[in-house]
Write a structure and sequence with these properties.
The protein has 432 residues and is α+β, with helices and mostly antiparallel strands. The chain has three domains: 7-149 and 314-336, Bira Bifunctional Protein, Domain 2 (BirA Bifunctional Protein, domain 2, 2-Layer Sandwich); 157-284, Bira Bifunctional Protein, Domain 2 (BirA Bifunctional Protein, domain 2, 2-Layer Sandwich); 342-430, Anticodon-binding domain (Rossmann fold). It has 16 helices and 17 strands. The strands form three sheets. Strands 1-5-6-12-11-10-7-9-8 form a nine-stranded mixed sheet. It starts with 13 loop residues before the first helix and ends with a helix.
Length: 432
């Protein structure tokens, strides 16, 4: 009988897991340096949590089922909605604002597996709840940028937009909500040909030539802060988008205060969901080609959608798997060091018990250690230590133990020295 992985899932072996843990640790350090605290939410939630957020059409993309009490349950397809639910359940009335939290966990979507896209994937993200100011948005983007730098990813391009500019135009021209949604979905796809066809093709979604032409021109404007003047000129005849434009200008100034200069103003970034209310951003890594987007975020009012009080929040989530692809693509392949610091090798069975004692002493002092468990001959033990790429071997011999000593061998140089058992920990730590 043969058992295979479920389609769209992966196994991670030792070296890959070590690299993923290193990246995870780097991200945690950055987030916690900014004052964020980690939370965890369940792997599954009530189905209605996700249909309320994203609409009934999302059901086709979910792993959903009825539990033994006939409740509709779904494996989480993302973590923003569970965080909003957690806030309403646990934090709304007890924690002062702003609240800074982050999360890391697996998500599930029943989609066609393809390169860079799996049915089980991981997200690493944050939420800043109760801070609407440009300073809050700027700090979140700065943290995103610092996270990428910590991973050694220096080619990332942070594309930012303020949805209020386009929505202000919709308001000016009295475009109904359903049509707005259609247009935003098209914009979100990032396909300019599709957008032009949707606006000025044979069957335009909007029957207003003036608005259509302004939208196409706005989406074409991409660049640094010098393009702000071009945006300003395009929206000059219309009052409704001007406040959003001023907020975008303010954010650009704040980003410079935070030392972020690798951003691109791109009014084609849409995020496609109604609850995004203001600043939105996406991070692209060009070297990843068609799968270049590794992060998306922005300011939103999701908590109100779930029945809570109006409170704006800003957040983002990295596609952790895409980040790992970027690290693999951009960094030189490096040989991983051994996962242990010291291998304890008894010369014969008479000192095997003492070898276990010494291994435990090392472990209890924070030194990663391994010891023979298969009663191998000494020569095979040394070969095993070499295969593990361990730097140091503590050789336990009967004669050395008579003087309460062991022999510590450096596997790179071949040098070895006798050390008192009581000094072993200090000697190893002194050499680290």
């Amino acid at each position: 009988m043969e058992f295979n992985r479920p389609r769209g899932t992966r196994d991670f072996l030792f070296d890959e897991m070590r690299l993923r843990k290193e990246a995870e640790s780097s991200l945690r350090n950055v987030f916690e340096n900014y004052g964020y605290q980690e939370i965890k939410t369940p792997l599954f939630e009530e189905l209605k949590l996700f249909t309320t957020k994203s609409g009934e059409e999302i059901v086709d993309q979910l792993y959903n089922f009825k539990d033994k009490s006939d409740r509709e349950i779904a494996l989480r397809p993302e973590i923003t909605a569970p965080v909003a639910r957690l806030y309403l359940n646990e934090l709304q009335k007890t924690t002062s604002k702003p609240i800074k939290l982050y999360y890391y966990g697996s998500c599930f979507r029943y989609e066609r597996p393809q390169k860079g896209r799996f049915r089980q994937f991981w997200q690493f993200g944050c939420e800043l709840i109760g801070a609407k100011s440009p300073e809050g948005e700027g700090e979140v983007i700065a943290m995103c940028n610092d996270s990428l730098n910590a991973l050694g990813i220096t080619s990332a391009d942070i594309n930012i937009n303020h949805l209020g500019i386009i929505r202000g135009l919709f308001k000016h021209f009295n475009i109904d909500t359903a049509t707005q949604r259609e247009i935003m979905v098209v914009i979100d796809k990032g396909d300019k040909e599709l957008l032009e066809d949707s606006l000025v093709g044979e069957n335009p979604l909007i029957d207003n030539e003036e608005l259509n032409n302004v939208l196409i021109k706005l989406i074409d404007i991409v660049g640094d802060k010098t393009i702000l003047k071009d945006i300003e000129e395009l929206i000059e005849p219309y009052e409704e988008p001007k406040e959003a434009y001023e907020q975008l200008k303010e954010l650009v100034d704040v980003l410079e205060n935070f030392g972020v200069d690798n951003y691109t103003i791109n009014l084609g970034v849409a995020r496609g969901l109604d609850y995004y209310t203001g600043i939105v951003f996406e991070v692209y890594i060009p070297e990843l080609g068609a799968q270049k987007q590794v992060c998306g975020g922005g300011t939103y009012s999701l908590i109100k959608v779930f029945g809570g009080q109006e409170i704006e929040s800003t957040g983002f989530a990295f596609g952790f798997d895409r980040l790992m692809n970027a690290i693999e693509e951009l960094q030189e392949e490096k040989e991983l060091e051994s996962h242990i610091d010291v291998y304890v090798a008894p010369i014969n069975d008479s000192v095997r018990g003492k070898a276990f004692e010494i291994a435990q002493i090392l472990r209890r002092n924070g030194i990663r250690s391994d010891v023979d468990l298969n009663r191998k001959k000494f020569k095979k033990l040394m070969n095993h230590a070499n295969n593990l790429k361990v730097k140091k071997v503590a050789i336990i011999g009967p004669k050395d133990l008579e003087e309460n000593k062991i022999t510590l061998k450096d596997m790179e140089s071949g040098n070895q020295e006798q050390i008192a058992v009581d000094e072993l920990v200090n000697t190893i730590k002194g050499n680290e």
